[in-house]
């Protein structure tokens, strides 16, 4: 393990250091992110460090760029299922959708900020694969066992504003599984499953800033979460539909129910009177 | 401003340090949290530091303790509105409810882990007021301008696991308002409103741990977010119902719609045939 002058040591689990890497240039399609992040990091990384990489630069490197006038088409193409839509008094339509990665978010992750003028960005094709490739490449290049999280900015159902969350993960545990462990009173913690990958992405956002060009941060102090490259990815954070109590907006579910309720009466009446539907 | 040997300086916005305070004893009803946290912090705090205090110890100090066999009654009492319920194959009932603080969460925040045997904890009566009192008391006691966030562990609609979020805030901005600022390409950032209070609570959870007794963490490096005690509290994070597209579970909204749809047909038929409903 390399020694580093940075503060924070994986030996003390009660201390975390988070910093943004400086010197990462504007990313263009085909850019070698491993080489660019490796050059920016230099010898500053150590075993157990977790790099949080903004999905935007992964998308750019992977060439996921479209002309801006295709934005609505792009959202439609990335959408698997419309969860809810709302039109504001000014006519702005918000579409909350499930995208092909299973994520529920506004605009299917299609991004029009911090992109070259006249363009929009799609999310990486497979952010878990991108994260694993980055972790693998950086481990080889720098000789340190790092984990990689690919982050995106997501809204929440019941809370205003956004937080950064993990949409890709390579070589890092996304959950800290405390189930089966005991609390301070010696009782089993049964339902607690902290999503540490989302918490790490949120911590990194505090140093990256939205308006600046600091797309990569390093989180040091949770080396216990770093592991083999074949750990489950961030896709495993996405709740499956069978367990999702909010898989459809309240208005939309009500409308579906209304139609079904009305139809059920017609059907019953049709049966009672013997006439066809 | 006091100098501190801890690494991380508010002068460098790209570096964040997060550590847990050691030496906070088991909290009992009536405990003086300002004195206990102040003693644990000693001279280590500086202007701009943000303390993240687990709501559990605030509840304990405020005596929000009930006998465990009142748990279901306590959940009912704390509930303003049932958002969704689900019964697992084993018969365990999950109630997602809005509590009197406006928060949507499981079990209305009634907590049965890390509590004295045979007891459950209610959330603080007014976590924003608790946070402001702590910030005010610590500023006076230690002579440093700190902010305080009271945190709780919350589930999410579409993502498995939990993250720590801010349910109380005193002397710290809960949102970083970037609206009106420009992105790196010079275009206005219109919809971005990072909920930095939730991100700070999440960062703090990474050092506090669930099974250990480390209920207070310090976040250093975002002194720009610390301000007067009358800044809006964490209550302002809660989305108001008029804008909440997920204010009711999909199954519950569908059932409501079904009943309304069936009733509408009966009503229409009653009008058509001139008979009473």
UniProtKB/TrEMBL annotation, chains A, B:
GO terms for molecular function: coenzyme F420-0:L-glutamate ligase activity; GTP binding; metal ion binding. Transmembrane segments: none annotated. Coiled coil: none annotated. Residues 24-221 form the Coenzyme F420:L-glutamate ligase-like domain. Keywords: GTP-binding, Ligase, Magnesium, Manganese, Metal-binding, Nucleotide-binding, Potassium. It comes from the Bacteria. NCBIfam families: F420_cofE. PANTHER family: COENZYME F420:L-GLUTAMATE LIGASE, PTHR47917. This is Coenzyme F420-0:L-glutamate ligase / coenzyme F420-1:gamma-L-glutamate ligase. It comes from Microbacterium pygmaeum.
């Amino acid at each position: 393990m390399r020694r580093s002058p940075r503060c924070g040591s994986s030996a003390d689990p009660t201390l975390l250091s988070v910093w943004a890497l400086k010197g990462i240039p504007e990313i263009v399609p085909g850019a070698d992110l491993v080489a660019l992040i490796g050059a920016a990091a230099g010898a500053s990384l150590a075993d157990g460090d977790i790099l949080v990489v903004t999905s935007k630069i992964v998308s750019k490197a992977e060439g996921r760029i479209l002309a801006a006038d295709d934005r609505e088409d792009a959202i439609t193409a990335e959408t698997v299922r419309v969860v809810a839509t709302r039109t504001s008094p000014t006519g702005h339509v918000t579409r909350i959708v499930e995208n092909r990665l299973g994520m529920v978010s506004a605009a299917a992750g299609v991004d029009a900020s911090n992109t070259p003028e006249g363009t929009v960005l799609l999310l990486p094709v497979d952010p878990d694969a991108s994260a694993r490739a980055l972790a693998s490449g950086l481990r080889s290049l720098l000789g340190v066992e790092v984990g990689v999280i690919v982050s995106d900015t997501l809204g929440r159902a019941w809370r205003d504003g956004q937080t950064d969350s993990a949409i890709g993960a390579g070589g890092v545990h996304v959950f800290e599984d405390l189930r089966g462990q005991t609390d301070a009173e010696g009782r089993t913690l049964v339902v607690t499953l902290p999503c540490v990958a989302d918490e790490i992405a949120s911590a990194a956002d505090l140093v990256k800033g939205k308006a600046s060009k600091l797309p990569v941060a390093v989180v040091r102090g949770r080396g216990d979460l770093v592991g083999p490259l074949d750990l489950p990815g961030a896709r495993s954070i996405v709740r499956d539909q069978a367990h999702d109590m909010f898989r459809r907006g309240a208005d939309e579910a009500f409308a579906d129910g209304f139609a079904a309720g009305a139809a059920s009466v017609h059907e019953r009446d049709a049966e009672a009177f013997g006439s066809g539907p």
